[in-house]
Amino acid sequence: MPEGPELFLASRYINAECAGITFTGKVEKSEISKNLEVPFESDGYLISAVSRGKELKLTLSPLKREGSKECPMDLVFRFGMTGNFKMVPVSDMPKHAHLRFYTQEKPPRALCYVDIRRFGKWEVDGTWQADRGPCVMLEYEQFRDNVLRNLSDKAFNKPICEALLNQKFFNGVGNYLRAEILHRSKIAPFEKARTILEDLQRGLQVSGATLSKKVKLKRENPDLLETCHLLPMEAVNLGGGKGYDPTNREGAAVFVEWLHCYSVPGMKSLRDSNGRTIWFQGDPGPLAPKERKSQKKKTKPKPAVQSSKAPKPRRNSTSSPAQKEAKGRKKRRPENGVTQEKEEDGMVKGARGPKTRSQRSSSDLQESLLLSTPTPARKRRTPAQKTQSEKAKASAISRPKRVKAS
């Protein structure tokens, strides 16, 4: 996200590109942008810009003419994640140019507010947000005084890494700046903010040094608040900031080399209570977050019910009729030490009534297959047993089939 240095570089870029250039016509907004229309139109006007922390003010000033009642208009921009300004020929308009200001030149050019992710916003006739403190870069003395006078604020109960993102006191500091500020000041990111800042306040009261001596000490050993001012100015002097200067393509590489901590390999990282990642080295401090447990409700898995019955073996659909008959035989309990076999259920059911022609043909086929298939040896029956078995079969065939009364 663009921070104080990037907003300052954007204002400097606008002033350099628009110096002495007259703009004309209506301010044009893209159709897909959800921001407000800018109700400004003039035959000739000038554009200038100034930044303050994470905000940029664009001023549209109509040229002074006799009888003209046109008034200047201020547009306050907050860049979001990817906002920036570009001056381009109208024939080479960027795809994501969501606000366009046209020049009187021939061929005309356009100053475009470009925002790929469309998180940025602008406010018509806007002013600096009241809840934002002085700029850490351009209003250093007011910024320092604002912090040290308000140490009782609940914002300083939090870790110093979270307090540095509070724009009420640190207007212009963002994620990469806070990591670099704390790392170069050798302060653990999760130390309590008030503890750190109260030490600065006591140090100023105890030392009876003159102003010139204090300035010298600050230069040699800058404290946390001084570093909040110096590091953004260093980033500006790199020429490209965090790669948001459209005229400096090499700025991003220079910026990466300038970083000591932020997203640097070998550094540690944690997420603060706001979900923002802080990069650091060494001990995180006493207020470091513990491992976050999942908020999802854990349900105990139901115990698997074990059946006392053994699983039935799967039948093979490709078995022959003879194999099916052999598998269908079930063993009876041993009687007198001899295991007797029970005949197949189909044969017993068939004995209850006369068979049809199709049943007789299938039965004959099964009998022929049984004859061709070797079967295990059976115990021979005596003639008396054979006679009793034949009589039982004859009586079963002659017995009429019972019909249940409905």
Automatic annotation (TrEMBL):
Q: Which Pfam families match?
A: Fapy_DNA_glyco, Neil1-DNA_bind
UniProt keyword DNA-binding present: yes
Asked if the record carries the keyword Nuclease, the reply is no
Domain named Formamidopyrimidine-DNA glycosylase catalytic: residues: 2-120
Annotated segments matching region Disordered: 277-406
Chain segments annotated as coiled-coil in the UniProt record: none
Subcellular location, principal = nucleus
Keywords (A to Z) from UniProt:
Chromosome, Cytoplasm, Cytoskeleton, DNA damage, DNA repair, DNA-binding, Glycosidase, Hydrolase, Lyase, Multifunctional enzyme, Nucleus
Q: Which GO terms describe its molecular function?
A: class I DNA-(apurinic or apyrimidinic site) endonuclease activity; damaged DNA binding; DNA N-glycosylase activity; zinc ion binding
Briefly, what is this protein's role?
Involved in base excision repair of DNA damaged by oxidation or by mutagenic agents. Acts as a DNA glycosylase that recognizes and removes damaged bases. Has a preference for oxidized pyrimidines, such as thymine glycol, formamidopyrimidine (Fapy) and 5-hydroxyuracil. Has marginal activity towards 8-oxoguanine. Has AP (apurinic/apyrimidinic) lyase activity and introduces nicks in the DNA strand. Cleaves the DNA backbone by beta-delta elimination to generate a single-strand break at the site of the removed base with both 3'- and 5'-phosphates.
Which family is this protein grouped under?
Answer: Belongs to the FPG family.
Q: Please report the name of this protein according to its UniProt entry.
A: Endonuclease 8-like 1
Species per Swiss-Prot/TrEMBL record: Pantherophis guttatus
